[in-house]
Amino acid sequence: MLFFSCSKASAMLLPCIFLAYLVASSSANFYQDAQITWGDQRAKILNGGQLLTLSLDQASGAGFQSKNEYLFGRFDMQLKLIPGNSAGSVTTFYLSSQGPGHDEIDFEFLGNSSGNPYTVPTNVYAQGKGEKEQQFHLWFDPTTAFHTYSIVWNAQRITFLVDNIPIRVFHNSEAIGIPFPKNQPMRVYASLWNADDWATQGGRVKADWTKAPFVASYRNLKINACAASSGSSCGSKSTNSLNAEAWQTQELDGAGRNRLRWVQAKHMIYNYCSDIKRFSQGLPSECKRSRF
Fold first, then answer.
1. Which one from 69, 108, 251, 286 is the annotated catalytic residue?
2. Nearest-CA neighbor of 279 among 171, 168, 131?
3. How confident is the model over 188-206, as pLDDT tens digits?
């Protein structure tokens, strides 16, 4: 089921943007695409590279990152979150560059006590500036099966999807002075860590370490993106060029806009664009623009 349409006119401009990048399409294998960066033995690649698990105990969590950096692309990851009492835990899937003026595109999953839903914050940082948070409760139990979480990032917009249903669109609003992540290559990151001082009900509910280790599972990392390279153009013809064009110009079609309306009406629990208390001097300028 697709909720996107593509603009051929904008596609003609993209080769100029993607100089020095090469279209990369990876098949899901963590041995090939990822490297474990912290957590000692708490991160494990299993099933011949098809599955990666992260575990959290009172001493530490764990994390991994992609081997390559990317500038624009589509990034899909299937996750199965910690079941039962996951209070205090933060599971993540995000893109990020490095340095004080870094760019970042976030999915986070804040654990909760048994029977209460996960909170899913999304955020966008550009040139080190964030404060673009929207939060959601999912319409299913994310602990009983794998579900697909996707980031589609191109020069016009960033789209967040859950099981290919759009939950958020963040547009490039540079024309009105809002920074947008478009110049810094980013890696894919994922982690599981303890944040029981704030993650669950504002820190009121702490992690129950008698239930540790807590385990989150990742599989089917799919990357169709512009990998950092030299002397190549992402807009050049290649065996992956048709796939690349889809995400380079993707925008929501009518069905996608309807699904986005449904998610934001029924499942959004926080929107920075409605937080008058936080932005007492006036809401950010991009909040006056269409959410589509």
1. 108
2. 131
3. 999 999 999 988 888 889 9
